[in-house]
User: Fold this.
Amino acid sequence: MMPTSIPLDYYLILSAVLFVIGVVGVVTRRNAIIIFMSIELMLNAVNLSMVAFSSFLGDIAGQMFVFFIMAVAAAEAAIGLAIVLALFRNKQTVYVDEINLMKW
Amino acid sequence: MSLQSILFSIFAIGAVASAVFTITRKNPVASAMSLVAHFFMLTGLYLTLQAQFVAAVQVVVYAGAIMVLVVFVIMLLNVGREVQAPSARSLRPTLAMLISGILVVMVSSVIASNPTGKNALSEKAVEIGTTASIGKALFTGYLFPFEAVSLLLLAALIGAVILAKRHVSETQS
Assistant:
């Protein structure tokens, strides 16, 4: 097997960049569904760094964590979108800055 | 330039570009499609890391199940293009870019000093990425979390149904 010539740092820096893109999405957008997609971006960035560590260190634990993170992300997707649906039914909006009932 | 570096460059640039597209498009459907492209780019990156099982699950679970759910909700709510809020928000994206830029530089400067000293994949990378080895680990060392996750998924299933269904009195009126 031919080992890859890409160092581990490249994957970690790529993962950090993708995570920060997700953070910017959460901070700047006002549509709840797009904020939700940005959270998925952040989860995937973490998954990438875990798989990179797993393959470079030869330890299966990283890929097991990715498996469980994917299961939790699926649960989070179902619950998150159900909350958006319930919110839309009550307030007729998906914009998070119009949902300010509990804002001080 | 080796084949590995060419593939890594293509998938890395594609992943960053599709992520930026996801957070900048005004139309939620365009965002969702960019996110699907992003998931496929990540699948390519997982394959360059010899993680075949994770790559397959990435396509099936993320690009398949989760994105179908998201697109379905976008369709159900009939969300149009995002309009700018009436209140002035011009400072906020600039500030977000600035702070996140600082964050990237800080994290990258730590990573760039190569704290792990790993420059090549482990020799075991090919064998641990297969479905057989993942399955063996799931049913031996990780059996309890595996069963706990099945309970979590059941709870999420019931929770989603209860949250999203209309109340009985509401449907009768």
